[in-house]
Amino acid sequence: xxxxxxxxxxxxxxxxxxxxxxxxxxxxxxxxxxxxxxxxxxxxxxxxxxxxxxxxxxxxxxxxxxxxxxxxxxxxxxxxxxxxxxxxxxxxxxxxxxxxxxxxxxxxxxxxxxxxxxxxxxxxxxxxxxxxxxxxxxxxxxxxxxxxxxxxxxxxxxxxxxxxxxxxxxxxxxxxxxxxxxxxxxxxxxxxxxxxxxxxxxxxxxxxxxxxxxxxxxxxxxxxxxxxxxxxxxxxxxxxxxxxxxxxxxxxxxxxxxxxxxxxxxxxxxxxxxxxxxxxxxxxxxxxxxxxxxxxxxxxxxxxxxxxxxxxxxxxxxxxxxxxxxxxxxxxxxxxxxxxxxxxxxxxxxxxxxxxxxxxxxxxxxxxxxxxxxxxxxxxxxxxxxxxxxxxxxxxxxxxxxxxxxxxxxxxxxxxxxxxxxxxxxxxxxxxxx
Amino acid sequence: xxxxxxxxxxxxxxxxxxxxxxxxxxxxxxxxxxxxxxxxxxxxxxxxxxxxxxxxxxxxxxxxxxxxxxxxxxxxxxxxxxxxxxxxxxxxxxxxxxxxxxxxxxxxxxxxxxxxxxxxxxxxxxxxxxxxxxxxxxxxxxxxxxxxxxxxxxxxxxxxxxxxxxxxxxxxxxxxxxxxxxxxxxxxxxxxxxxxxxxxxxxxxxxxxxxxxxxxxxxxxxxxxxxxxxxxxxxxxxxxxxxxxxxxxxxxxxxxxxxxxxxxxxxxxxxxxxxxxxxxxxxxxxxxxxxxxxxxxxxxxxxxxxxxxxxxxxxxxxxxxxxxxxxxxxxxxxxxxxxxxxxxxxxxxxxxxxxxxxxxxxxxxxxxxxxxxxxxxxxxxxxxxxxxxxxxxxxxxxxxxxxxxxxxxxxxxxxxxxxxxxxxxxxxxxxxxxxxxxxxxxxxxxxxxxxxxxxxxxxxxxxxxxxxxxxxxxxxxxxxxxxxxxxxxxxxxxxxxxxxxxxxxxxxxxxxxxxxxxxxxxxxxxxxxxxxxxxxxxxxxxxxxxxxxxxxxxxxxxxxxxxxxxxxxxxxxxxxxxxxxxxxxxxxxxxxxxxxxxxxxxxxxxxxxxxxxxxxxxxxxxxxxxxxxxxxxxxxxxxxxxxxxxxxxxxxxxxxxxxxxxxxxxxxxxxxxxxxxxxxxxxxxxxxxxxxxxxxxxxxxxxxxxxxxxxxxxxxxxxxxxxxxxxxxxxxxxxxxxxxxxxxxxxxxxxxxxxxxxxxxxxxxxxxxxxxxxxxxxxxxxxxxxxxxxxxxxxxxxxxxxxxxxxxxxxxxxxxxxxxxxxxxxxxxxxxxxxxxxxxxxxxxxxxxxxxxxxxxxxxxxxxxxxxxxxxxxxxxxxxxxxxxxxxxxxxxxxxxxxxxxxxxxxxxxxxxxxxxxxxxxxxxxxxxxxxxxxxxxxxxxxxxxxxxxxxxxxxxxxxxxxxxxxxxxxxxxxxxxxxxxxxxxxxxxxxxxxxxxxxxxxxxxxxxxxxxx
Lengths: 434, 1014
Prior knowledge:
Chain A is mostly beta strands. Chain A is 5% helix and 52% strand. Chain A contains one helix and 34 strands.
């Protein structure tokens, strides 16, 4: 028996395999379209002042209620907003809006792209409340939004509301749960291009108790990091009080452990180790750490997904104000416009190693590095228009504290308009087959 | 002789008519002279014989005279009778054909029968075959309503005396008929218009209506060669067109019926005659006897075009009639008996073909095994022993595995490559015949032939297509095991090898994948490829095949091509390879005849099915990707390396860790010294093709993105080759291993068997567990919500996330309100560029003009099927131009803000409105002059008619058909299907030709041996 013929066959088979491997180029069936969604800044309500920090004078914007799609350049680096909400084509730069009531309070928030879920932990619905929930629909179609409120008395009735196209809606916080003190609100649009903002403003009679813009978080999580909490000292007490507000939105009670991180070290406050939180009940704890540092961070680990924020009492030029420090997402490379704000930024993480590029008003760019363990601080130069996080280590969080003549504010360092990678669809009749 | 007449009071004159009957005449003359009751007078007439007939008559001393060649039988008889002496009482004329030999007692028996029956004027003998004298030809005759000569006998009926006796009949054959002379003359003899054939029936009919009686006396016997009817001699009588006996017979049959029947029966009889002529002509065409077919048609038309003859004949009969015409009614066979006899004949033919009578062996006593019977033990096994037979165990096992695997597939199947089936076959026929398919933006692509095949197959289940598909997927593994077993039986006589081999074939990777992913064509190939291997086992030397066999194979290939043109690719590749091989032989032998015949026959096998599948197959030349697809949706294959293992890969395929032994068996067989080596060469050749095909990517069947070709159809060959090679190898190896000491072959065999056994166990395990949760499932919820189906003719842009094992992908398509159904993906058009851009812009949020684009193309809604990325839904909300109309758990629907529809009208001011339309051929009215835009893909068959005129058609900048309307009024929108009908006609012609060529050829009567005839 000769093997030449079988061997020829095998050789032919191997040749075919080789040729096929060349022919068989990987079929890439996915194409993507990358874009930064337009960001929306909150409207300015009566009696309030508002400025938006921008990184470029050429940044296009339009007023929310403009019926055309035409935009105009901002022409300034800090844009005062008279009334209407603005839609800004910021292309990856996150503008920061700074709102204040003259001589009463101030607060900061990020202008962000539309969100499918926003949790606001802050505000009150009792008699002191002058707070409002602003729901902005920047889309060209009417939107329907579900507003779900939680208080110390549990979950409130769901409120669904319609927001007209290119318009916004103002809801008083005291209408969400009349009389209740501890409020957490979940805004979930059923349809539409929706952004929500919360203003927590409190008065007692004619006396202003302060106010703040409450920054939202997108998701509930078992691990929450609030990276920047001001810790001011007064003449009469070691430190002004802090209140930790926590909610477990799910159906199961959660057990939480709170760690305070500061330049003085990390410790778990008394009574906040393995503390049970009832599901659906907004719970508050006094947080009065005995630390010398003038800022701190809080890290909460829970057995169930939670949302949390810390309300800190601050004093600015002899007047009381308060700040809602909210959770921040993990820090990623981003650019934030901070013209005119000079924020103090607190970084939290096991190993902090951050490179930043700071762009000054005059256009110069300087590289800064921030390193540390557990918590680190960095003050943005006064003449900076923006900073860019160029490099960041894993599990690092950041928040900014801003002090102004009218009050004290906080905003998380997060991308307001992350790069959105949308898959370009293919035509395939398969979509019509179950 | 005179003394004999005195005894029985009868006088008999035999009249013998001869015409080229020298072959039979000696025996006839001998028969006449040897009658026990001597004939009183014999006279003969020769009608211009050119053989030795006259010499024979002369030598027999029979007085005769000669007439013209064109003289008919009846005329010859009349001439002879005229020359006889004056008629006397009880004188009888005995009509004798030159091919009819009466038995010695025939005349005596005939006279005996009429002795005490004075009313009888015509009596005939029982006619038996000339050669087979047990074959009963006639015992009295009649005529059926369709003109058929009716004997009431079965074909080739054996004479056992079952019809014996004296019976009243309509008539008897003139061969051996004894007719009373006075009545014969009174009725004018045999009709002159009936020169040959049917003159006997006509005479009997006339005798009956004249008040006489006709009987058959079966004690009298004659042997008849039926030389004219069986074309043993040329007929030269007047009126025999081109000497064709069938033509004359049919013409005369029609004449008899039309001349003798009641007036009120004439229309019905004419219809019957014409209908049966057409049916018989069709049958003759199928039997490849066009001459006979033309005889059938011409015979009737030639008579009907000359009604004067009929009218004259009816006048004569009217004068002769003394009793009601209804007197013959009992002798005309009822229609049901014709039907019964016809059906029995047909069934007998089929039975003979299917179960040929094989007991043609000798009946010699030497072959008797009676003694052996004594030694054969009595079988005392219980019926449970049947379960120990490998066939029973094997088929029972595959049935159980298939049932377990199909547990989620009891109901209307959908998923994978398989769209939902329509509930009835009529929907499939509609899809097949329609010239315009409402799929996507519309398509005029030719529906593949498999749709028609499926529709025909569904007739077996009363048109329930869904049931057919479900049943097919359930029993396909059993059928493929059966077909493979039939092949393997030829390779080994050991069922313990062939049954496991067939079982492995039925649980092969390609089977499991095809069932799980809904690949109908692959399953069909798996069933039929073993039969193809059986038929084409001598593919190399195809010149030995008859053309009929070649066309039979072409017909089978036509069905396989109909389901997938990949079978054409396989056949073409195989043909090329073998032809190259043949050329090697030709270059040595230089035998051009064999070489050409091989090339022609092989080309016929490969290309004739291609023609039969026109126009679907022709379109594949324009869209070559169609050569690599199967019915239904495109599901990607696994690529060349997966295919190498005999696994097509992709959705529903077995996991990669479940490696089949296919490649291993083929490689080992390649080094075998048995026939397995040749089989393995075919297998590896097919595997190479499968790898090559599997490495290609195509975008077709409504899928814009390229997908790896599913190589399942080619892998069927590979799998079969591996199973066949393994069977051959194991069959021979078993003997070798049994007889030899343990050595490396034992070890290698054990390893191979272990691997094969492991695969079988794991494949069964996979099949009945995870395999049951395949892409193809029963009774799935539809994609499109019911409320979107309410508006007919509404186009909807559907966006959906398609999830597969590897990825999640956003895809879109245009729906007409419902999910796609069987056959539609095959004709799905390519997506329009503008719509594609609009859909993409919709997703990435830049689609400010998406709404306008969609409305321009008549798309009324956008439907996003849940689950879907909520950010994208918000983007669509924010884009503008759309109004959200519903959001349910099924998905979100937006309506396009601008007015749109299937038919748009733009008036002279530029205002656009949507016109109300119904189904494909829309009838509506336009309010004024303007432009009509049909939001369907451009096609030259689109027409708009107004006031009976076609409106001029152009394509607008979007490529949509646009019509200029000059005035208000009613319009009709139609898609002219003439081209499609023309193609279908061509396909039918090709198909009929192939069927005719496949059917067994009929034989002319002169080609049938006399032994077969009688």
